[in-house]
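=== RUN LOG ===
request id: a7f3
mode: sequence -> structure
chains: 1
length: 233
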Amino acid sequence: MLRLEALSAGYGPLQVLFGVDLEVAAGEVVTLMGRNGMGKTTTIRAILRLLKPSGGRILFDGREVTGLPSHRMARLGIALVPEGRQVFPTLTVRENLVATARPPLAEGTAWDLDAVYGLFPRLRERSGQYARTLSGGEQQMLAIGRALMTNPRLLILDEATEGLAPRIRAEIWACFRRLKAAGLTILIVDKNLKELTAFADRHSVMEKGRIVWQGDAAALAADRERLLGLLSV
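=== RESULT ===
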């Protein structure tokens, strides 16, 4: 579904990505791991065209989309749950959700208010509250629900469990497993190696703007000690 070929990008004269190659097949869950500052979020920004690549190609469903603007990338069915949640604070929970709603692009699970409330019952209870009054965990649920309301074909999760209490993290990981079981394609950035090992189909590790390791869960387990060195702060 998604393919990056020798993708390079940066900020002004500062180059951050150096020839990144990455693939995410339909129905697959793929991780993007690495220490802070290694280029993970920059990769996501380049995929979504929030940052203009300086080289390489982005393909979605076999079609080159490198030059498309960000709103066209969203229309293709790519949704982001951004680091730091970034909900609309002065809108209610319901208003946050319906603001991004659109019909599904293909057959499968159709995400509407009832479906999102079924995934996160707490959002139904707080549907009339302003987003700024929610707890951090509830805001994260809202950010995930808002992305699902676009009925994405590819969901990108950038540190979606960071800074949350253990109980809330467990709830959100359980929801991610339900999304995977429903067949949603997911690219996930997270630091929880234990959860990622059990959750994802394939893994990729970034170091200094390059993909330096890729493999499935068995390969990760076999190379765990070396990878821990690449992932530790």
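=== NOTES ===
The mean pLDDT is 93.
The first helix runs from residue 40 to 47.
=== END ===
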